[in-house]
């Protein structure tokens, strides 16, 4: 809660951030009558910012859900892509569910072809942003950033490092 006190007819807000959105009361008073109070709603528009982009592991034949959440004013519209191809609701066994600031890409029956990298795009009149989200199988391992890696890639790395280690002796 912010309180601004000013003498005169104007309130000037500088260095405006989205936190300054909200209701403001203007109170006019004098010694003759009771104060007159009016409320003004201030809306600060800002581009989308993705706060949640959660990768998930799902077994073949199961239901899988990728989630993306973005804050924005005006509210963001969402688009989903796999590689360079835009996904559309109801096609290729996926459903896109948008509710407020959250979008979900739902797979009703995950197949091997569904595994991979997806991009959630959030856009409004102020800007655009995106996040990468991975649908992976139950055998995949993850790095510290949450990216999936196939177990055989780790085995190859181990086999490459072992001979180098032995060569030192």
Keywords:
single chain, 169 residues, mainly beta, 5-stranded mixed sheet, 4-stranded antiparallel sheet, 1 helix, disordered C terminus
What fraction of residues sit in β-strands?
A: over 45%
- Computed Rg: 26 Å
Order of helices and strands: EEEEEEEEEEEEEH
Unreliable spans are 143-169
Q: How many helices does DSSP assign?
A: 1
Q: What portion of residues is helical?
A: 10-25%
Question: Structural class, please?
Answer: mainly beta
Major sheet strand order: 4-11-10-6-7
* Global morphology: rod-shaped
* Strand count: 13
Whole-number average pLDDT? 82
- Looking at how many chains there are and whether they match, the oligomeric state comes to single chain
Give the N-to-C terminal Cα separation.
Answer: 67 Å
Main sheet?
Answer: 5 strands, mixed
